[in-house]
Every structure is written in C-alpha cells, then in structure tokens.
Amino acid sequence: MNQEFLKPRLVGERFNKHSVPLELLKDFAALEEMIVEVAKWKFKESHPKQKRIPSGFGKDLSLHISNIEDGSTIPVIILMYAMNCPANTQIFDSTDVDYFKQARDLVIETIACAGQSKQLPLPAQFLGYFDRFGRGLRGDEYIEFNQLAKLTIETRKQLIRASKVDEWTEECVLKGRISEADQSRMSFELELKNGTKLKAPLTSQHLDTILDAFKDYANNARVAVQGAIKKDRQDHPKSIEFVEHITPIDPLDVDERLEELGKLQDGWLDGKGVALNRENLLWLVKSFESKFDADLPLPYLYPTSDGNIQAEWPIGNWEASIEISLDKKCAEWQVLNLKTNECRDLDFDLSNDRGWRELNLALKELSHELDV
Amino acid sequence: MNPETLLMRQVNPSFIQNGRVTSQAFRPTPKDNSQLSVYNGDLIAPENSWRHFTLNPSCRSSGVMAVSESECTEQAVPVVEDAITFPEHAYLDFSNMDKKEIERKAKVLASKAHDRNWLYQA
Predict the structure, then answer these.
(1) Which of A28, A241, B78, B92 is deepest in the core (most CB within 10 A)?
(2) Do A336 and A206 fall within a single domain?
(3) CA–CA distance, B65 with B116 (Å, rounded to integer)
(4) d(Cα B100, Cα B96) in Å, to the nearest integer?
(5) Are B7 and B66 spatial neighbours (Cβ–Cβ below 8 Å)?
C-alpha cells in the first residue's frame, strides 16, 4: 500500500539526537504541496490536449514520515495510498505515482542547480514554495537529498530570489521595544534598535506580555519576538507575518549585552580600547546560560580597555565585581563593603564548573548577608 | 584647587549599562601610566569639558561625572594639577598602588560620583 519515496538527511546540531523538531514538520508539509503542484504541471505537460487535470489527480496519495533513521537525522518519507482505497490496490497501480516521482526528482534537481548557480529546471511559479520549505532551518543547518542537492539557508535564498515573489519570509528572533499596541486591530509594532518599526499580528496568548512591554516603552522594556518575518527582495525586513513566542528581555540580559559589546572595534576607548573576541564572548554567553545560578541577579557587564569583560553586582552596601580574562577563562573577584570598607579578593577558574559554582556561592553569601 | 573642587571624568558610552556607570570610569587603564585624567572643575564647566574632550574624533563621551578633591584625599589618591597637557587638565595619581588597591579605590570613587549624579549628559 505504500513505498519509500524520499530520504532527506537533516544536518545540524539540532538533529544530532536523531529526531525531527516538530517545528520542521510544517516545512515538510510545504514540500508535499510543492510536489503535488509540480506533479500536476508534469501531467499537463504530458497531456497537452487535455483541458483539465483529472479532478481526482493525486487525491489518494499523500506523503508521510514513517520512520527516522540515524546518520544525523534521516526522516523516511513514504508515499501512501489513502485508507479508503480498495484493499487489493497496489500503489504502483496508480499512474499518478509516476508524476509524483518526476516532481520529486525535479525538486531535488532544482535544489542541486541552485547550489551550483546553474539554470533552474523548475519554473519560477513553483519556487515560491521554498518560502515555506526550508524556513525552519537555522544557522548552518541543511537538508541533504543527495551529494549535490543540499538545501541550505543560502540555497533557499537563491531559490526564492529566482521565484516571482516580491516578498518572502524567514524564521528568526527579533528584539526590540513595543512602540504601538492596537487592541481593536489586534496588531502591535516592534521597534528595532536601528529604529525600524515592524507591524505584527497580536494574538490573545501574547496580549499581556505585549501590553506590559508597551506600557514600559519609555523605560526601554524590550522583548524577544520569535516568528516569521517578511522580507523584500533586498533582504530588508517589512513586517512580522506570525508570532510563535514573545519573551520579555531582562534589562541586564547577558546575551544581548555581549552581542552589543561584540560590535566594539579597536580604538573604542579614547582610541586605545581593544575589540572583544566574538568567539570568547559566545563562550561567556553559553557559560552564563548554563552555569550561572538563575536565582542570582544578573550582572552589569562592561568591556575593559584590554578587550576583556568586567561584571559588576551592586548588592546592598556591597560592590562586587569580576574581571574576566576571556582568553584564559579565569576571573578576579573583588567585593567591597562601601560602609565598612571590608574587602575580599578571590580568583575563579571559569573554564570549569567548579569555578562557576564558587562564583555562584560568593554571590549567594552576599545576598544572604543582605537578608540577615 | 580646594577640597570641594570637582574633578570631572568623561564617561565612555560602553562604560554605561542601563544608566549605571562602571567603576572602571574611575581608575586608570594599564596604558594610562597609573594616571587618571580629569578636568579641573575650578577652571572649566562640565559641558565645556565635554565639548573639549569630544573635539578629538577618537574620544567619545556620554557625559560628565565627578569626584571632589576631598574624596580623593580620603582615599589617599593624590590629585595633581597638570596644566602642561592643557590648562584645565589634572590627574589622579594611582602610582605605587597594586591592581587590587586601585580597583578598591575606584569602587569608592565611583560610588561617590554616582551619589553626585551626572553633571552633564550629552
């Protein structure tokens, strides 16, 4: 009743555990739609005298993921006959299957051609499906169909540019302030750091978060919006098509602050400051995410003139700081009581969990002293 | 110069997060020869000091904060009037102090400056 149809390999960190993230299923739903439409087109090409495509074309066929194989992650996609087909029907009885296979091969060939900057075999009207197929890919992830056909973020962009669409969407996380919230139209506006304002649909599950951030606009309250953003052919963001998640950003969010500091260039401090190494900053972001106790207050983060980071915590009368050497992954801790002048100095090795535990403990002791 | 004289520091934009200024703004960098440059508040107004500082395109400042001469003396940080670099120039002398001691004194000075608030914001 069914047969193996496609075995694309998903490559990337998210797929290392041999599973398919649920959010990627909608990409495969778009692939199915594309294959059906291309199959119809191939049918029309083979039957030039026929005015219409038979109304039942492909109706009994559908694509399913039946299994996940190892090797990064390989979803096994099968072509399946509808349940209401006669029990003795064999899938290869259907002539539609041939067109589905031709469509599949053509889609794969098109991806391969895009990767090699060759002329694309699929007409432009079908390339718009790549707006949805591949949208869920992140960073350096890709879907491999064969050695030549790899759908990467870059290949997808080329395919969309070659299509007839003027706008296309991309899944991403955008950070900004809520400059407008309109409950009658159920929409809001996200203001990015560069001043760009993007309209977005407002749904009831996000209403409270959006209204809170809108009220706190003047205090620079920021949110992270995860969803699909519509872009024009010049790659400029135009609007937000749909929102999956909205999260308030802590005013001292480590990721955002270090991203900002990563943009500093040599000479940032009176012509002498050294730029911060981005790879090292990434290490620090990840370390704070995974090793810094979530109960503790986030630090204020500043660059140092020699390209390192100073983290500071004002806790009651205490002024605590660590100067983090990003290359050596070690830190000098100093805490001073501004009232009593009591001062303690310590060194932490932040290259391991123990050093982070010591930092957490030192901060907890200060918070505890504040409570007593 | 007298104990109330304000010694003004230009604050680099990256030394501010959410309105809070790092204590680094009140300590010399390793390249500063243990001398922390300040403007002598008896000789120049905060806004004019900012204008003077930012005339140099590589020097950026979000505004001016200050500590008084007496606050430096309390921390045993000598204040040196140095009209050589330019007439309103002075510096806090951190020489003969180790790194930890400089950091500690910078924390105290930064706290005093925070209490005084901005003298000028660009």
Answers:
(1) B92
(2) no
(3) 8
(4) 12
(5) yes
A228-274 confidence digits (pLDDT tens): 999 887 778 899 999 989 989 988 999 989 999 999 999 999 999 99
Whether A318 and A266 map to the same domain: the answer is yes
Instruction: Please determine, for residue A86, whether its predicted confidence score (pLDDT) is greater than 60.
Output: no
**CA quadruple A20, A24, A30, A35: dihedral sign:** negative
Residues A235 and A326 in one domain: no
pLDDT for residue A32 is more than 80? yes
Are A181 and A278 in the same domain? no
Q: Are A242 and A228 in contact (CB under 8 A)?
A: yes
CATH code where residue A191 lies: 2.40.50.200
- Interface pTM, i.e. ipTM: 0.94
Q: Which of A121, A138, A165 is the last residue of a domain?
A: A165
Tell me the average pLDDT across A350-364.
93
Identify the CA nearest to A238 among candidates A202, A196, A206.
A196
Chain A residues in contact with B18 by the CB 8 A cut-off are: 220, 251-252, 300
Beta-carbon separation of B111 and A338 below 8 A: yes
**Phi/psi class of residue A72: alpha, beta or left (left: φ > 0; alpha: ψ in -120 to 50)?**
left
Contacts with A319 from chain B: Cβ below 8 Å:
23, 107, 110-111
The residue of B10, B58, B115 whose CB has the most chain A CBs within 10 angstroms, and thus the best one to mutate to test that interface, is: B58
Selecting from A269, A302, A345 the residue whose C-beta is nearest the C-beta of B17 gives A302
Using the Cβ of A309 and the Cβ atoms of chain B, whether some distance falls under 8 Å is answered with no
Boundaries of domain holding A33: 2-165
Do both A33 and A95 map to the same domain? yes
Does pLDDT of A91 surpass 70? no
Is A174 in the same domain as A287? no
A137 and A13 assigned to the same domain? yes
Q: Give yes or no: residues A145 and A178 share one domain.
A: no
User: Which of A134, A165, A196 finishes a domain?
Assistant: A165
Given CA atoms A123, A128, A134, A139 in this order, what sign does their dihedral have? positive
The reported pTM is 0.68
pLDDT of residue A236: 85
Residues of A whose CB is below 8 A from B14: 261, 264, 268-269, 273, 302-303
Chain B within 8 Å of A283 (Cβ-Cβ)? no
pLDDT tens digits, residue range A4-26?
A: 899 999 999 888 888 888 889 99
